[in-house]
Structure prediction request, 567 residues.
Amino acid sequence: MTNSPAVQVEGLRKQFMVGMGVRKRLGLDGMSFTVQAGEIYGFLGPNGAGKTTSIKVLTSLLRPDKGEALLFGAPPWSPASRKRIGFLPESPVFYDHLTGQELLSFCGTLCGMSRASIKARSKELLESVGLAHAANLQIRRYSKGMTQRLGIAQALLHDPELVILDEPMSGLDPMGRSDVRDIILELSKEGKTIFFSTHIIPDVEAICTRVGIVNRGKMLREGTVAELLSEGSTGISEVVVHGVPEGFRREQAHLDPPLLDGRVAFETPTASTGAFLQAVLAAGGTVVSVTPKQASLEDLVVRLIDRGED
Amino acid sequence: MKLRSIWAIAWQTLTEARRNKVFYSLFLFALVVVLNSYIFTEVTITTMDRVLKDTGMAAINVFAILLTIFTGVGVINREIDRKSVFSIIAKPIARFEFILGKYLGLLLIALATSGAMFLGLLIALKVYRAPFHPAMLVGLYGVLLEVLVLGAFAVLCSSFTSAFVSAFMCIAIFVSGHLSSELLVSAKKSASELSRAMGKIIYYVMPNLERFNFKYNVTYDVPVPAETLITLTAYAGAYVLAFLVAAAVIFSNRDFR
Prediction:
C-alpha cells in the first residue's frame, strides 16, 4: 500500500450529457497518468482539456464511465483514502456566512481532527497564507485572492500526504502567485506530493518535477520539463563566428544586429551545420559557438494543442 | 458513521440559517400572537383563552411547516448550485453523512423556531391569565412529527431537483397528506378505474399528515393515549427513514460537474 503511486489513473473515460440530454460531450477520453509520491506534478492544458474533470474523479465528485482512478492504491470513493488528500477546487466557494477561522474549524472536524489540533493548525496556516488578520472576518467580505488563500489553508489543514490543487494561481496577483509557488515548494520539501492543474506555463516550468500535457480528455505528453524540452528541437542551430569578411556576412543570412567585438550570429539548419562551419573557416573566420535552438515548453504545448499532435 | 461530522454539518446549517436572518420570521409570529390577543380580547367574552390558544397553536403549525419547506427545499441543491459542496464532498465523509447532517440541521432550525414560538405563546397566555393546557404539548409534538416527515421529504427533493420544483412537490405532499382520507372517499365514488387507483395509491403510499393534527385535543384539552403517540412516532419515523434512505442513495450516485 505504501509503495503505491500517490495517483494512478488508467484509461478514464467520462461523457457528459448536454443540452437537455440530447447531446453528449466527451470530458475524458482514455486519460492515463501516474504521480509518484513526493513529486510536484503539473497538469497542463487549455481550458476544457479535461484537467478539472480528472481532478473531480480523483476527489470523488465524478464517477468515470470507464477506467480506474486510485489514490495511494485505493479508490477515491472511500472516505479513508480521501483522508490522505487535501483539495482546493477551481474558483472555490465556501460558506460565506462563516468566518475564515470557523470554516477551518468546520473542515477540521470533517477531517476528524481534535479541537486542539484544529486550533493550532488553523492559526499556523492562516498566518502562512497571509490571512491571520482576516481570521474573524466573514468569508462574504473576502476578496477573490483571499478566498483562494483560504482554500489552500483548508486543503492543508489536516496535513495530507497528497495535495490536489485545481488552478491554484487563478485569481491571484503576481505576489499571491509567488506565495503559492513558495507554499508548494515548501510542501514538497516536507515530503508531500503535489498535483496541480494550470494553464500558466511559467508556473509549471518554475516548480514542477514532472508535467503532463493534456488536451481533449487525453494525455498528450508526460515527463520532466527537461525531457519534454529535449523533444522540442527546432532543427535550427545558432552559430556564432568571428572574423568573417563583410561579403560572407551579406551572402549568409545573419541575425541582426551583430554581436559585440566583431562576433556575428548566424542561424543555419542543424543538418547542414558542418558545411556552414567549413564555409566559415574557408572565409578566414573562426567559430565561437554552435547552439542547437530548443523550443520552449510553451512552443511544445502550442504545437501539441494547436496542431492537434499526439 | 461519524457522528461528529454529522453534527458539524447540522450546526453549520443552523448557523447559516441564523446568519441569513431566517429567524426573523419569529417576529412575524410574535406580531400575529399579539394582534390576535388584542383583537380577541376586544371581541370575545368568555372563550378568549381558547381562541388565543387555538390560533397560537395554528400559527406555530403554519410557521413551522412553511419554514421547514422553504428552508428544506434549498438545503442540498443550493450547495450544489453554488458549488460549495465540492470542497465538502472531497473531505473524508460519506455522502449519506452529509445528507443526515443537513437533515439534522433542518430539524434544529425547526425545533429552535417552534420552541421559541411555543414559549411566546405561553408568555401570551400568562399575560392574559389564560390557563395552560397539557394537551398543547401534544399539539406541539404533532407539529414536530409533521415537520420531521416534511423535512425529510424536502431533503429528498432537494437532493435531485431545483428548489422551485422541490417546493412544488413539498406543497403537493402537504396538501395530499392532509386530504388523503377525503381523496380516498371521493376516489371510491369515482366511476373511473384510474381515479380509484390513484386515490388508493395516495392514501396508502403518501404520509397521512392529518394523523399528526391534534387540534381537537388542544381545543378541548382531551388527553391523547401514550400508545397513539408511540404509534404515530413510529409512523413518522418510517417515512423519515424511507425518505432519507432514498435521498442518500440518489445523492451518493450524483455527479457534481
Notes: Residues 40 and 51 of chain B are 7 Å apart (CA to CA). The interface with chain A takes residues 2, 4-5, 8-9, 12, 15-16, 19-20, 82-84, 86-94, 253, 255-257 of chain B (CB under 8 Å). Residues 95-127 of chain B form the longest helix (33 residues).
